[in-house]
Amino acid sequence: MTQQSDMTKVFDTMRSGLAIVTTAYRRKPAGCTCTWISRVSFEPPLVAVFLAPKRSTLETIRKGKRFAINILAEDSLELARRFGFSSAEGQDRFADLNYVTGESGAPILRDALSYLDCRLESITALGDHEMVLGRVQDAAIQRPDTPAVYDPGTFFVSNEAIAEHNEAQHG
Question: Among 64, 125, 134, 142, which one has the highest count of C-beta atoms within 10 angstroms of its own C-beta?
Fold first, then answer.
């Protein structure tokens, strides 16, 4: 039988995009970094994101019935870290960020490479995550850069370690 640690190592070899899922309820924005995202259907236009049930962003999506998938560019690692993979209860992750309200009412990050603005269709519990299914209301590419690819080996490195690495490489 496969051990959990072996399975996790294999999952970590799977590469995916890097995005920030945003939402709002009563004009209060919420968001978190997400890598588990999937196209579901062209007609109707459906997408899915998979979030842990403990996330405050998931609860805000339940209440507000809207969300946006803000797809990040390669130069957006710090923005992805800002939104993290854990709950940010009491933190204002949107402070000093340039964003607009999308057609659905969810925040669209202006620094994102592109976005999918969605109305909530359903939320389904699947194992230790929940699948949030959305119908795309609006979509756009905001800049012509290369999309970010999530790599757990580099994502969880501190800013100090990155600076030390860069200095050692470039002296």
Answer: 134
> Mean pLDDT in the chain?
87
pLDDT at 164: 47
Residues 65, 68, 69, 75: is their CA dihedral positive or negative? negative
Q: Which CATH architecture has domain 15-170?
A: Roll (2.30)
Place of tokens 């359903």: 122
Q: How far is residue 29's CA from residue 18's CA, in Å, rounded to a whole number?
A: 19
How far is residue 16's CA from residue 53's CA, in Å, rounded to a whole number? Answer: 21
**Residue 60: partners with Cβ closer than 8 Å, 6 or more residues away:** 23, 24, 25, 28, 30
- In terms of pTM, does the model score above 0.70? yes
Residue entry with tokens 């290369």: 146
Rounded to whole angstroms, how far apart are CA atoms 171 and 167?
A: 5
Q: Is the bond preceding residue 44 a cis peptide, omega within 30 degrees?
A: yes
Cα dihedral sign for 158, 159, 160, 166? Answer: positive
What is the residue type of 152? P
**Amino acid 158: pLDDT:** 52
